[in-house]
Amino acid sequence: MPQNTMIKVENLTKTFGNFTAVKGISFDVKKGEIFGFLGANGAGKTTAIKMLIGISKPTRGTAVVAGFDVQTDSEKVKRNIGYMSQKFSMYDDLTIRENIVFFGGIYGLSRQEIKQKTEQLVQELELENYIDQLVISLPLGWKQKLAFSVAMLHEPQIVFLDEPTGGVDPITRRQFWEMIYAKAHTGTTIFVTTHYMDEAEYCDRVSIMVDGSIEALDSPKGLKEIYGVNSMNDVFLKLARNIE
Amino acid sequence: MKIILFIIQKEFKQIFRNKAMLPLLFVMPFMQLLILSNAASFEIKNIKIGFVNHDNSQTSYKLISKFQSVSIFSLSENFSTIKDAEASMEQGKVDVIVEIPNHLEKKLLNDNQTSLSVIINAIDGAAAGIENVYVTQVIKDFNQSIKSELVMTSFDSENKPYFNVIAIPSFWYNNTLNYKTYMVPGILVLLVTMLTLFLSGMNIVREKEIGTLEQINVTPIKKHQFIVGKLFPFWVIGLLVLTIGLLIAKIVFSIPILGNVFIIYGFAALYLMVILGIGLFISNFTETQQQSMFISWFFMVVFILMSGLFTPIESMPVWAQRITYINPIRYFVEFTRMVMLKGSDFYEVRIHFMIILAYAILVNFLAIWSYKKVN
After folding, report:
1. Is residue B351 part of a domain?
2. Is the pTM of this model over 0.90?
3. What are B180-218's pLDDT values in tens digits?
4. Can you give the residue ranges of every domain in chain A?
5. B288, CA 20 to 30 Å: which among A49, A182, B41, B77?
6. Could you give the CA distance from residue B61 to residue B67 in angstroms, rounded to a whole number?
7. Which of B5, B9, B220 shows the shortest C-beta gap to A75?
């Protein structure tokens, strides 16, 4: 695997009984890339992500993430990745500070490091006044930004974002993407799924999954040229309609 | 170890921040202990007794007044014929009939020996046994030479009396026996068990429901770190509840603690690991807190009823007795009674220790094995 390939997926397949959720997908993601992983609901995106982050075993095929095989070295993969799920998954009944301490702690950060990270994080998010408030009391947009920052606490090489901006207002979404860009600039690889086609335009490359297979994979510009349309929205609709 | 501390810290914060949790942990169990210990009694009081006196002699009246002077016989009634008395028993108005035959006094004087008949409503077998002993004791106390002929009777749905002669040559009875002494340690065991089983079973499933478990499974945390961190707080809470319960037992109910307290804690520490392991095992196979609760309840009911606390294990059928060997509550109930009431030392309860240790290892092995970070 070349030095700058962070994710290498070959013929990755997952079946549940008779149902094949992911049908032998293959792709590479380079270091520092923002990789958009698109698809309609039920296309198999979440199943594919779960295999890449090592919480679901592939039925067939291989996936090498951050240099480790998810089939055999899933715990080593986990050390090098961050993950933010579509379901908000911080503890509502803990404060911002307590959540940071906990997640930092289970990634093996020292108390000193956690303290430092906490200060830096609340400063960046401008949450200084809310640090000792329960997370449940925060607006959704803040929570999502917080969740992203917490997923980055241990400075992973790759971060997986599964619909990170679902239900978030346009301003916060813009801010969220600014955070993503900033992280990508420091060399972090971003693997993101979304249903917002304007967000797809922000990605370096985009794959579109339909019915368990990747139907298209290129830069947003390239995809628009291939399908002869003006927006990612039309690319998406064209692909989804072809299948129907 | 450091990572485990972070989890423990988080768990304790969540437990003590949950407003429903504190009363659940520290009020309900002790209310239950206070209420159940007073309610769960096998004592028979207020026995309604009827007399059929065919003798009408000095001695027979003395015998009747002897019965009347005993406080557990709350009501006494005289019947002229045994038929009337039996009719009254069918209606549930009397529990015990003492029939004094003709010439009781005469026979007693001439032969120095006589007999009278006692009929006991044995619809509740356990109560009838105790009533029999009371009656026999009163008679013996009155005169060693009177032999009672016992008839136990019960009425089926058609109200037809069915007679049954039961010979009880000797029936051990300790009339100073305090049922609370017997019940309180057992009830305490049940409360500690229920609390820790339900809480541990629901705690991890809760994280599944809210989605945080997935977040944790994406971290490089080791299975044992997570599980130890998760269960340790409930282990501490279990021991804390036990401590308060023991204090209540001692102070409120004056239950003797004859054995060594350290043996009790040593055993409880192992025992709680068994229960927490079961809770974790259940939570590994359930997706919602309701499912976990129902399954925990199922095991709890079986464990409680087969623990030997309410019905003696010796009187269960053999197959049921065999089932009790896998019931952890059985061992803890036996253990607490032996150590608290009999003052057994470690040597006498070593078998209990070995079984519960093996159980703890087995259950926790299964629980950790069945906890999957990768599906």
Report:
1. yes
2. no
3. 777 888 888 999 999 999 988 888 899 999 889 999 999
4. 87-155
5. A49
6. 10
7. B220
